[in-house]
Fold this sequence. Notes:
Layout: E1 9-14, H1 18-23, E2 37-42, E3 48-56, E4 60-65, H2 72-80, E5 86-91, H3 99-107, H4 123-126, H5 141-149, E6 155-161, E7 174-179, E8 182-188
Antiparallel strand pairs: 1-4, 1-5, 2-3, 3-4, 6-8, 7-8
Amino acid sequence: MQIETLNPIKIKVSGSERFDFLQNIITNDLNKLEEELFSYILTPQGKILYEIIITNSKVSYDLVCTNDQNDLATYLKKFASLSDVNLHIENIDATEYDEKYILNQLSSGNIDANLLKHSSLLPSEINDELVDYSKGCFIGQEVVSRIKHRQLNKKKVTVKVFEEKPQNLPNNSEILFQLNNYFILREPVVLKK
């Protein structure tokens, strides 16, 4: 899979219930927000829909999604009608999250889940640190908690560098994304004996 046109978006969430509104949707704990907080928004089945970056501007929480594949604004509007929150959508200059951004992320071993096909991966496969298992309920929480605590994770997503595209990957590994010599692979977890 090669990168296509990225669709970054910024959504400002304001209103008196903005904290509770977000806290009940995101996987990370909003109480930990200092400068910025990375989090996932999941499906009820625990699969990643969005990876977001949250900042606090005192009057709103600002959410940035580096590649809005599945219309984050419409998703949030479904829940916003039940709370005292307002959503303001802003377009972001796509050059902020261009190929240079992606290469920088990949070179440091970071995987931006928004580059991968949405709703196909679990948080434990990419970055478990974006999930706070002690904060309480969020969408998909039961599934990801069960996988974590019962150690049911069978695959892990990693970044590898190859000079050329590998012909045969071991152990049923699959290539999820490629940019230059960087490959994001989904590989079976090797259990320790």
